[in-house]
Design brief:
One of its GO terms (molecular function) is metal ion binding. The chain is of the alpha/beta class. The protein has three domains: 126 residues, Fumarate Reductase Iron-sulfur Protein, Chain B, domain 2 (Orthogonal Bundle), CATH 1.10.1060; 168 residues, FAD/NAD(P)-binding domain (3-Layer(bba) Sandwich); 148 residues, 3-Layer(bba) Sandwich (FAD/NAD(P)-binding domain), CATH 3.50.50.60. Helix content is 36%, strand content 15%. It has a five-stranded parallel β-sheet, sandwiched between helices. Helix 15 runs parallel beside helix 16.
């Protein structure tokens, strides 16, 4: 009797393999990307591990609902252009999300293989697909696009605004994007360090958007350089994508001392300096002791940026344990590898110094019977610091002119919209739509992209409906 060979499953025989990384010693010497790209063989091997589940939890857990099993299968078959086209059907910027999404909390966290065998490396493959496509000159097919006669102003060139502009342009709308920064991307460019998201990636996407007909008006702040009411006269509809970029204060004595920085102020200045923009000299942190307050992705960006500025030491203070930190696991791991020292179960209660900050007073935190954190008496501890960066997150920062346009806000300063309305993401002013962090509060880039896409689709229906009613 002929023996039958046991069936070999690729997800068993081929283990999860993440992209190679530069050594910690090498990467803190410059701002280059930490991760090396997959080779075609590596990408095909890892994509071939996908089970192609009948009910793909990975796609459901993705905020833009990417066709993940579909483009994994195409990569495994070597059909990279088809994979890129499929990836772009749901996400205008796969090259961004592949790099900065916290996949362990989203698609990879939902992967059926996650328990025991290791999730498919979805994020790294998404980046590979997009990078190879763009290297080979990929462009969206605009051959069938006809002008629809409508004009939209997008205020804010961050992820929500750019996603909205992309969808509108693909549907024949004339789109103008206004932003206060000198480059597009918003905090993709000016808030996320080069070692996580290379600025050439955003410049490349700008070129594509301009080829699609999108016009950018940069160094232009609505409310200062442009009257928003004039925009309503000149355009059929407006989209607001200004984000939530007001840093939360620590609310402790000494916060006004010299060399105490808000995280975003530090990151923006650092990137302006990296880009060589005039008036922004690099921070001189050589041989300085840095203390970062916070445990999210922004705190990790500050930690790792400070190391690249040759800080003598970087201490990251967080009020709970390492596993409680909201930052992406891979970013925390990278920070540890690069030399960041984590000080957990401690809370900063005072910044000490005369004119300049000299130290941080910390106390231990413990959970009480109800599970709430409280300070432990007699546990004060002094941590020396030459500079302190506060990374406690962001609040809404709505411009005053929203009130003049009859746009209603919540008690937290967020713009009121509804995803269940006839025209989702429409504000109290029917000609103004909004999405991203202005609606969500500070959240993930991919969620801002998802809302920008959905808002654009809603705006197209609204403008079509208005045309019919005329």
């Amino acid at each position: 009797m002929k023996e039958t060979k046991p069936v070999e499953f690729k997800f068993v025989t081929d283990k999860r393999q993440e992209p190679d990384k530069l050594s910690p010693e090498e990467r803190i010497r410059h701002s280059a990307s930490v991760y090396l790209s997959y080779s075609l063989d590596q990408a095909q091997n890892q994509a071939g591990r996908c089970l192609d589940c009948g009910n793909p939890y990975c796609a459901w857990q993705c905020p833009v609902h990417n066709h993940i099993p579909g483009w994994l299968r195409l990569v495994a078959e070597g059909k990279l252009e088809e994979a890129a086209n499929l990836a772009h059907q749901t996400n205008p910027f796969p090259e961004v999300c592949g790099r900065i999404c916290p996949q362990e909390r989203l698609c990879e966290g939902a992967c059926t293989l996650n328990d025991g065998l290791g999730a498919v490396t979805i994020g790294a493959i998404e980046q590979f697909i997009a990078d190879k496509a763009l290297e080979n000159g990929w462009r969206p097919d605009m051959s069938a696009v006809k002008p629809n006669g409508r004009r939209v102003a997008v205020i804010g060139a961050g992820p929500a605004g750019l996603a909205c502009a992309s969808v509108l342009a693909k549907n024949g709308t004339e789109v103008s994007v206004f932003d206060k920064y000198p480059e597009i991307g918003g905090l993709l460019t000016f808030g996320i360090p080069e070692f996580k998201l290379e600025k050439k990636i955003i410049r490349q996407r700008r070129q594509i958007l301009e080829e699609m007909g999108v016009r950018f008006h940069l160094n232009t702040e609505v409310g200062r350089d442009l009257n928003p009411q004039q925009l309503l006269l000149e355009y059929d509809a407006l989209f607001l994508g200004l984000g939530a970029d007001k840093g939360k204060k620590a609310g402790i004595p000494g916060e006004a001392l010299e060399n105490v920085y808000q995280a975003l102020d530090f990151l923006v200045h650092n990137i302006y300096s990296f880009l060589g923009l005039p008036g922004y000299e690099p921070f001189d942190f050589r041989n300085k002791k840095l203390v970062i307050l916070g445990g999210g992705d922004t705190a990790m960006d500050c930690n790792r940026s400070a190391l690249r500025l040759e800080a003598f030491s970087v201490d990251c203070v967080y009020r709970q344990g390492m596993l409680d930190m909201p930052g992406a696991r891979k970013e925390i791991k990278n920070a540890i590898e690069e030399g960041v020292h984590f000080v957990c179960h401690k809370q900063a209660v005072e910044l000490i110094g005369d004119k300049k900050v000299e130290a941080v007073k910390l106390v231990n935190t413990v959970k009480n019977a109800s599970g709430r954190l409280e300070y432990q008496e007699g546990s004060e501890y002094i941590l020396p610091a030459d500079a302190v960066i506060i990374a406690y997150g962001f609040d809404a920062n709505p411009p005053e002119w929203l009130g003049h346009l009859s746009v209603d806000l919540t008690d937290k300063g967020l713009v009121e919209t509804s995803e269940k309305a006839n025209f989702p993401f429409q504000t109290s002013n029917p000609r103004i739509f909004c999405g991203g962090d202005m609606v969500l509060g500070a959240d993930l880039v991919v969620r801002a992209i998802a809302q920008g896409v959905s808002a654009a689709e809603s705006m197209l229906r609204y403008m079509q409906n208005e045309s019919r009613s005329l």
